[in-house]
Amino acid sequence: MLFSNSKTSLKNPKRNKKISRTFWTPTKIVLLSGHLIVLPICTLIILSFLLPLFTASLSASIGTSHHSTSIPWIDDASECEHTGRNWRDRKCWDNQHDPTF
To answer: The pTM is what?
Structure first.
């Protein structure tokens, strides 16, 4: 019985052509076209949201962003100003540090 089924599929090539012809129905063509249009649009939208995050982390790693940091081992105003830092609120502040310090 198993061998008889395999012989009939070999003898009937019209059946195989019918299966491949019915695969490309108009509905499937429209759905595939829709996916091929929507996929790049969604990709561009997602990348437009992620691009600012990458540029912000890149600029922070380069060191273009600086924040004030107090230097705890300097507790004298004259010593602080001698090193080129600012004395404010009885602390020595350095404006050249990046946020990852």
So the answer is: 0.37
